[in-house]
Please model this.
Amino acid sequence: MIRFNTFLEIEAHTQFRADNPLTQATYAGIIGWYAFEQGHDIACCVQQPTGYLCRHLHRKGWVVLLTDRSITVIGGDCAREKFGVDSVMGQDLARAESSLDAAQLRARLDVLLARREEQLKALHGCKVALRERDEQMAQLQGSLPSSAWRALSDMARLGNSRIIVIGVTPAKTNSDGDIVRDRVEIQIVAGQLSGIAGASEVRRASARKEVDQLHSDISKFTSTDADSMSRGELKKLTAMLDNVPRAIATLNAYISEVDRFLANDFRALALALPDANDQLHTLTRASGRAGGPLTKTQARELLREMSSELAARHRVTRIIAP
Model:
């Protein structure tokens, strides 16, 4: 079939006649199809029962041969609506659409396959980046006490980026020992972590698996393989390859999320841990990551300052772990 890109190309055909009426009786075959840019629609030449031409405007449609060997045009929608599936044109139309779909599908597939090396390179970059982030996460995990890492893992699992502590105001009693004001506990946000989803080992494992699967899927197909595929197989392969750029963009976005998580200042996390030694350990290591390593004495003093500042800001007596 001939592809006509403009109406001028149709008009230039030696057998074309303007306003050339098409009926079931004068139809002889489909010679091509047209698909124009927006705003370049042409009038359909199907002849109505009244004798007038349809003249509905169409941007896509068919160029057909008539019994007198001249050619005319019919809009795609009108072809489907005005010629039944059992008519000669209806059957020709079904075959033409199937052939056209297959040709367009194959052309699209060839374009996608031509980008394969570029995409494989991008996926390799994702794979290397994920391996590097895994090593950095392992270093972070190894530097923190297990209670701190569990707290981070739980936050990632719940999608909670806030470091929560408890502010306590003890009960107040009168001179007789009677309680005149109950003990009050409130939740306080001690800090907020960026990129908390980056802390999820499940998500990182899923990303690694996705990279490997995409790399395998892209690598195993060639244009030669596509020659022997059914239309259904071509559609499935094309859809998969069409999705690769989005998948790579999602993977890169996730890697950036891990980077944001690794760049956090984790010192506030110490306040959310119940064990005093774990608090000092976390504060010492977190301060070292932030560029200012502390001695144990300095860490203890900083912990006291952080707790006092938070208590004063929220008007509570002291800060405890949840």
Remarks:
- DSSP finds ten helices and eleven strands in the chain.
- The mean pLDDT is 90.
- The first helix runs from residue 7 to 11.
- The CA atoms of residues 61 and 76 lie 4 Å apart.
